[in-house]
Amino acid sequence: MPASEHLGRGPAAFVLYAMSLHLIKLGRVLQDLCSEGHTIEARLIGRAMVSAALGILLIAEQDSDARALLFASFEGTVRRQRAAALVKHGYLTQARADELEAEHAAEDVNAFSVQAAAGTVPAARLGKRPEGWSGLSDYALAQRFQKSSWYDLFYGPMSDQTHVNTVAIQQEISELLAGKIMIGATFGNPFLVVMAACDTVSHASESLDQFFSIGSAIMRAALDDEMKRAVAAFVAG
Question: Fewest CB atoms less than 10 Å from the CB: which of 52, 104, 195, 204?
Answer without folding.
Answer: 104
